[in-house]
Design goal:
heterodimer, A: alpha/beta, six-stranded mixed beta sheet, four-stranded antiparallel beta sheet, about 30% helix, about 25% strand, B: mainly alpha, MetI-like fold, 11 helices, about 80% helix, binds adenosine-5'-diphosphate, binds magnesium ion
Chain lengths: ~290, ~290
């Protein structure tokens, strides 16, 4: 089943349980509704120069509140570009990106970003790193401190509050950066290949952790990944991108039951979905 | 996951313990050898000067130098030709000039690095001034500012200003774009980006500049005093030279290197406090100027 890229996948998604709809929205809200809408998005780097590069070509999709969306694609297909546009870190050339109905213009307070590297500031303790968003956004520091400790406990880093980042393993650093991204209670968590630098064992652990964090925090998560199993394991839906020019080619709903366990990855149902994506790449010709 | 966390936490500790043990086993001999070498050098020096009857106005014996040091310091601190007064003058000039020069270098570095445009416009001037041997300007500065403290402070400030400015600019350039993105993703102001990321990232570079500047500061003081001054160790060297008191000159050299060592020791202590977070092997950064 191949969808045209411009078809929103929302009507094909298994609907989220009612308790997944959050209480931040006062009054009756039409559900399900789109939290993020991307319409005919185009991004050209170096417009008008000899190095002009079409990074994203006509990308359309929509994401509902509470969704876990995975994006897979070969490197250079514009995944990071798409994420940076969503985060407001990058302008786009054409089309529209709306967040909760309002066009994205610059960065916003209700987004948390997890980068490929943990990007912890080495001179700050783990706790102070997690508190960074509170300082920058001018939140109440006492409340933030309480919340930071709770988040560190959630990512299983209690007892490491006063360590420096260099004293933690890569996986622990990345968990701290997830706690930091959640500190200001953003509605949306954008993650750009957050586990790409980790070894396979740690990565599986982190996938389980992330599923738990998502279930507990009820965020809308957009996860970019290189790994098809990771995308299938975590996503409600997998968006498949291809390169040259970067475009959204397929939308694969993952209707596997939750919570998902590692045992699930060995089942035929899981294998089928992963195979569907893999076959597409093999057919399209490129995946590294 | 909890198990993994515990393993993770204990791993570096064990590694460190092993490293410390190894270091201890090796580092003691190194210091002992240094000391033995010193004793040997002194013995050879003293022995050959006496053996070959080298005149003391050519090369002083070690005992001549020790006697000169003793005579120099065994006087009232205010004595005109004692070591105390001259050392005090030179040290005050050095410290004052160092603070002025480093302060200006830091301030200008911060100001210039705020906009790429400004830095691009000013860079040729910085390079041009940097390639000028600052010592060449020293006589004019003495002409302008006189034989007193002001001219020495100006010369030292001129010498210490550039290493700090250049390392400062290099440091602010070295900020990882990812860190800026992190702050930007939080809608951080320029002020926050500067105080929370850029400044800290530049600190190791700045300290490299401060250390370089420390060595230049003593040079600046002596050059200034050679050109024209009433007191200071540079003046003392000239006086001792004309009196052919080479032992006395060597004694002053020892004081000068002690001042240099002391100054950089102070900077190292401050640096260790400020850069506590830098991995040890990264603490000594070599910076290409
Ligand atoms: N700032 C930029 N300037 C010019 N080209 C860029 C820039 N950022 C990314 N690109 C190009 O856009 C394409 C997509 O990059 P990116 O979004 O990082 O891919 P991915 O994250 O999928 O690996 C690549 O060809 C990359 O070289
Ligand atoms: Mg990328």
């Amino acid at each position: 089943m191949i969808l045209t890229p411009s078809v929103p996948y929302s009507d094909r998604m298994p609907s989220r349980p009612p308790d997944g709809d959050d209480s931040r929205q006062p009054g009756p809200s039409p559900s399900p509704r789109d939290l993020i809408r991307i319409d005919h998005l185009r991004k050209v780097f170096g417009d008008g120069t000899p190095n002009e590069l079409l990074a994203l070509d006509d990308v359309s999709c929509s994401i509902q509140e509470g969704d876990f969306v995975s994006i897979v694609g070969p490197s250079g297909c514009g995944k990071s570009t798409l994420l940076r546009i969503l985060a407001g870190l990058l302008d786009y050339s054409d089309g529209s990106v709306t967040l909760d109905g309002a066009p994205v213009q610059g960065t916003r307070r209700d987004i948390g970003v997890v980068f490929q590297n943990p990007v912890l500031l080495p001179w700050r303790t783990i706790l102070d790193n997690v508190l960074l968003p509170a300082e920058v956004l001018g939140l109440d520091m006492n409340a933030a401190r309480v919340r930071a400790r709770a988040l560190l406990a959630m990512v299983r880093l209690e007892g490491f509050e006063n360590r420096l980042p260099s004293q933690l393993s890569g996986g622990m650093q990345q968990r701290a950066s997830i706690a930091r991204a959640l500190l200001h209670d953003p509605r949306i968590l954008l993650m750009d290949e957050p586990f790409g630098a980790l070894d396979a064992m740690t990565r599986e652990q982190m996938n389980l952790e992330l599923q738990r964090i998502w279930t507990e925090s009820r965020k809308t998560i957009v996860l970019i990944t290189h790994s098809i199993p990771e995308a299938v394991f975590l996503g409600d839906v997998v968006l498949v991108m291809t390169a040259r020019p970067g475009a959204l080619r397929r939308v694969v709903p993952i209707d596997l039951p939750r919570p998902r366990t590692m045992a699930l990855t060995a089942t035929p149902e899981f294998g089928e979905r992963a195979q569907e994506i893999r076959a597409f790449f093999n057919h399209a010709g490129s995946f590294d | 996951m909890a198990e993994i966390a515990t393993l993770d936490a204990s791993a570096p500790r064990t590694g460190q313990a092993i490293a410390t043990k190894r270091r201890r086993r090796r580092s003691i001999p190194a210091k002992v050898y240094s000391l033995i070498l010193l004793v040997l050098l002194i013995a050879v020096w003293e022995g050959s000067v006496r053996l070959f009857h080298v005149p003391s106005w050519l090369i002083p014996s070690v005992s001549d130098i020790v006697v000169a040091l003793w005579n120099g310091f065994a006087v009232s601190p205010l004595a005109r030709d004692g070591f105390w007064l001259h050392s005090f003058v030179t040290i005050s000039e050095t410290v004052l000039g160092y603070f002025v020069g480093c302060g200006l270098g830091l301030a200008l570095g911060v100001a210039i690095s705020q906009t790429d445009k400004l830095e691009a416009v000013l860079r040729p001037y910085v390079v041009a001034f940097q390639s000028l041997p600052k010592v060449a300007v020293a006589p004019i500065i003495v002409l302008w500012l006189g034989f007193g403290l002001a001219s020495k402070v100006a010369i030292i400030a001129l010498l210490t200003f550039f290493p700090v400015l250049i390392t400062c600019l290099a440091g602010f350039k070295a900020v990882e774009p990812e860190r800026i993105d992190l702050l930007r993703s939080l809608s951080a102001s320029r002020w926050h980006i500067f105080t929370k990321v850029k400044f800290w990232t530049a600190l190791p570079f700045i300290f490299a500049g401060l250390e370089m500047a420390a060595a230049f500061a003593v040079v600046g003081a002596i050059v200034g005093e050679f050109i024209g001054a009433q007191s200071g160790l540079g003046v003392l060297i000239l006086q001792l030279d004309s009196a052919m008191d080479v032992g006395g000159s060597f004694a002053v050299f020892i004081i000068l290197s002690l001042i240099g060592v002391g100054l950089s020791a102070v900077i190292r202590v401050v640096e260790a406090r400020v850069l506590y977070w830098l991995p040890k092997d990264q603490a000594r950064r070599s910076i290409n100027l």
